């Protein structure tokens, strides 16, 4: 129960803050969890209670909350050179080193990087780059962006318009230039008797029809997450990206991969596009880029888009866009260390090694009569609650079933995320076998208590 005495942390937190993306009835009834510090994959609240964070913060704290190498990298750079932008021909050495590193680890032979402070800003930056390029090349109406229903790309105006969630209607979004096609969730969206291959082909045909209806000459790009994250962890149907890439290639439309969650190891490879074997024209990165230790995003342009942007920018002599802290040296120093930690200190290997255990745990809990499906890739997983397993009938949204499961988990010292009717798990890459077992045991206990 929330403690509403004036000096309680609950009252102070609710009186002083306006909450985004929070179930307000839950917080009113239960109070806020106010945290003081973290220990590996655990966080600790003001009363000393420990929670295993199966959410990795917000998909991003992949190295845990107290990684000594990341703390040291931040402290050293703060002492050396605490802040600078990447404009007017001046930037820090760290910013240059990180740009080179990102191109080196990207799937591109050559490319260019632009830094932002978040994933949303990186998506907006990508859109503005495309609009700028197309306008300069005499195609001012080539502005539409195609994304998918249920996709999540952020909260700034363009990124929210790209996001395929109904709640954006509350803001009068999407803007007219943003077009959504269907979410490739085979289990939920397939027609009766449709095979997965047929479903994939239908998704590709629908994209093709959408492009023809809108006019390929009006479309600037298609943007997709390799695995939908905030949509409830939805991996693509079999062969989806190959079929989509073929359609986009026929219409000469750039394919942008939003790898804000999937980048740097989450799906078991450095990039989600590697896991699903497709080559995008640009990558949007954030979150794991700094292992959550600094707010930073990046647009990584592949060779064709990088060359085009360079050419059109040379003609006007300036690309008038950027954020005060773009390419912040402390963020870049942390990102350089984070990439090293994930790729060379065993974290990516741990994801690969423990993925079978993770999948077994999800599959075991999916035997519960009120779990309709488990989904996952690498260290991204979800369990979808249903009222009736055979008919896949969802619970009435008003019952907030996933919210109740997540709240019960919190009571047992486990943080996981309710998303729609699903419970999402995205453990930090440092999670051990026994911590993984603890995660599934606590979630199982919560499922049995709620149902
Ligand atoms: N793109 C994807 C795939 C995301 O999951 C998110 C955030 O969760 C964003 C973009 C937006 O990133 P940010 O919250 O840093 O603006």
From TrEMBL:
Its cofactor is pyridoxal 5'-phosphate. PROSITE patterns: AA_TRANSFER_CLASS_3. CDD domains: OAT_like. The keyword Transferase applies. Keywords: Aminotransferase, Pyridoxal phosphate, Transferase. Coiled coil: none annotated. One of its GO terms (molecular function) is pyridoxal phosphate binding. GO terms for biological process: biotin biosynthetic process; gamma-aminobutyric acid metabolic process. SUPFAM superfamilies: PLP-dependent transferases (SSF53383). It holds the Pfam family Aminotran_3. Belongs to the class-III pyridoxal-phosphate-dependent aminotransferase family. This is Aminotransferase.
